[in-house]
Amino acid sequence: MSRHAATVTQHADNDTKHRVLFAAMQLFAEKGFGSTSVADILKAADANAGSLYYFYPGKQDLLIAVLEAYRAGIHPMLLEPSWKGVDDPIDRVFALLDTYRNALTSTHLTYGCPIGSLALELHEPDPAVRKLIAANFDAWVDAIEECFDAARHRLPRRTDRRALAVFTLTTMEGGVMLARTFRRIDAFDSAVKSLRNYISVLAGTATLAAGAVLP
Questions:
Q1: For residues 85 and 170, what is the distance between their CA atoms, to the nearest angstrom?
Q2: How many whole angstroms from its chain centre is CA 1?
């Protein structure tokens, strides 16, 4: 095979692999892992079974690839678009939450966080899958913790900023679940408002403490 022919073949393989992965990401998010068949993925990707199994020996392998793609894409696909033009670290936290709100409203309250949905569906996945779901949650929490770290001078000195980031994740996941269930965006808004009020209380406490030590 000539070098040119090999390059063309490699590009075709990469295109097929990408289409299969993207189709699986969409279908797992929309239908769930268990309800998505290999035939569904092949149809959505316009690929044949040989192509799919060449890249992914089984459906579980494809799930792992999907989770790895989400983990690798958290900054370019989620954080960077959410934080474009937003410099204040606390504002970044709520800009990210607003991204989920927009996803809910643009899908008529049917959107579900893909990682959260998989975590709820796959109660006892194999260790590799569970580890990657946890890694996705950790990456999200890491990003929010960095925001709170950047704003640490506006929070009480003993604030557990990691726990506050986990609380933010819990607020988002719970808000999305409630909004989907009740088909009401105010269910999400109420959760976010409570988080905002809590952070405002923390900020107020920090301000009072700073004033108390002034001469």
A1: 26
A2: 42
Output helix, strand, coil percentages for the chain, rounded to the nearest 5.
80, 0, 20
Rounded CA separation 182/192 (Å): 16
DSSP string, 47-111: --HHHHHHH-SSHHHHHHHHHHHHHHTIIIIIIHHHHTT--SHHHHHHHHHHHHHHHHHHTTS--
User: Which two structure tokens, joined as six digits, stand for 142?
Assistant: 């890491």
pLDDT in tens, 80-126: 999 999 999 999 999 999 999 999 999 999 999 999 999 999 877 78
Query: What pTM does this model have?
Result: 0.87
Minimum mean pLDDT among 127-131, 200-204, 205-209: which range? 205-209
**SS3 call for 198:** helix
DSSP states along 158-180: T--HHHHHHHHHHHHHHHHHHHH
Spatial separation of the C-alpha atoms in residues 20 and 48, rounded to whole Å: 10
CA distance linking residue 164 with residue 171, whole number of Å = 10
User: How many other C-beta atoms can be found within 10 angstroms of the C-beta atom of residue 28?
Assistant: 24
Closest CA to 59 of 32, 92, 88, 99: 32
- pLDDT reported for residue 13: 52
